[in-house]
Specification:
alpha/beta, six-stranded parallel β-sheet, about 400 residues, single chain, about 15% strand, Rossmann fold, about 45% helix, 2 domains
Length: about 400
């Protein structure tokens, strides 16, 4: 069968590549065509456009690149109609994907599947109307999405979380040579995000809160974003000689890229900007403080009340439905508050054991590894049913 996939960011590229491998196990004759990335291209098929060409975030940025986005959308619609896949599989990225779904639904008979639901439970809940109208099957990776969609009378498939699979696979192939060596020093991991503004807003506060631990023999390791140059980190207080390679005397802070699991495997505690990284940190069983500083925090507080439909910003707390990990958001994200919370999660801290116990509860709710395989089996079963 023919599968056309659309992703719009690095995480989607990763999840879609694993889904493609699982589909090939179920369907040895699978053919792929996609808007995707390097990981999908490594699996096979035809890459029509790289997601980096259309991955624009923020109102102003989108406006500045609107012509490029609209052109990509038109070409994507034309490619789907011309190739006539057996199914169109959308992966998150709702601003682009829901518009594609609307067109394909109204102009063709191609079934539309959505792998990894848009976060409409957090904001833009009105998109449920478009999903119910244009999406034939939804494949969810978060357990709390099931009751959310049930309230909207839209049944979905919960297949488990692919991050569970990714960490299980990493643990399977890891070796003593893989990752960052701490050389016996306890480590605090800083995960300040992947976007420039996230990093510039959060990393200076994280560094200041972590700095006193250097005198206690700790090593501070920053998970660097692959697309962000070293110069940005230097401007934020990490001296250039401390980047990358550790000096003989030992560097206070090291930046490492593409090794987040290896860093977390050695970390005693972590300071994490909200996002999938909070879930990864929890699954690696590292106590954490979730950080999200924003300038003009009074605006954020107002928008949060008006737009956000959830009590928490971290996936960990949303899954267990309580504040298991502390969240410092807006003006609450400051050096004093972060220092206090960090003290509670390092060894001997008052909050450490409760977090580690709560992580076990979260893991049970997420379920066992096998999300891509379960999704692929259901997809192929539905498609075979349609053909028969």
């Amino acid at each position: 069968m023919r599968y056309f996939l659309i992703v719009g960011e690095a995480s989607g590229d990763l999840h879609a590549s694993n889904l493609m491998r699982a589909l090939m196990q179920e369907d040895p004759n699978a053919e792929f065509c996609y808007y995707g990335g390097d990981k999908m291209q490594a699996v096979g098929g035809t890459l029509l456009r790289h997601y980096k060409d259309i991955a624009y975030m923020g109102f102003v940025t989108v406006l500045l690149h609107l012509r490029t986005i609209l052109k990509a959308m038109r070409q994507c619609r034309e490619s789907i109609v011309e190739w006539q896949p057996d199914v169109l599989i959308l992966v998150d990225y709702p601003g682009f994907n829901l518009k594609i779904a609307k067109y394909i639904k109204s102009h063709t008979r191609i079934p539309i599947y959505y792998y990894i639901s848009p976060k409409i439970w957090a904001w833009k809940e009105h998109r449920i109307r478009a999903i119910k109208r244009d999406v034939d099957e939804m494949f969810s990776i978060l357990p709390f999405e099931v009751p959310f969609y049930q309230r909207h009378d839209y049944p979905i498939h919960y297949v488990g979380n692919p991050t569970v699979d990714e960490i299980a696979e990493w643990r399977r192939v890891r070796s003593e040579e893989l990752g960052v060596r701490s050389e016996g020093s306890p480590t605090i991991a800083l995960l300040p995000g992947s976007r420039r503004k996230e990093i510039t807003d959060n990393l200076p506060i994280m560094l200041e809160a972590a700095r006193p631990y250097v005198e206690r023999g700790y090593r501070i390791v920053i998970v660097g974003a692959p697309s962000i140059e070293d110069e940005l980190y230097e401007k934020l207080g990490v001296r250039s000689e401390e980047l990358g390679v550790r000096s003989e005397e030992g560097a206070m802070c090291t930046i490492c890229r593409d090794q987040s699991f290896a860093i977390l495997a050695q970390a005693e505690a972590a300071l994490v900007t909200s996002g999938t990284a909070t879930l990864e940190t929890a699954l690696m069983r590292v106590p954490q403080v979730v950080c999200y500083y924003l300038g003009a925090s009074w605006i954020f507080k107002l928008l949060r009340k008006l737009l956000l439909k959830v009590k928490y910003i971290s996936l960990v707390n949303l899954i267990v439905d309580r504040e298991l990990v502390p969240e410092l958001v807006g003006s609450d994200m400051n050096v004093a508050a972060l220092s206090e919370r960090l003290a509670g999660i390092v060894r001997g801290g008052s909050e450490r054991d409760a977090q580690l116990q709560g992580y076990e509860e979260m893991a049970l709710l997420l379920g066992e590894p096998g999300a891509p395989g379960r999704a692929a089996r259901i997809m192929c079963g539905l498609l075979q049913g349609k053909k028969n």
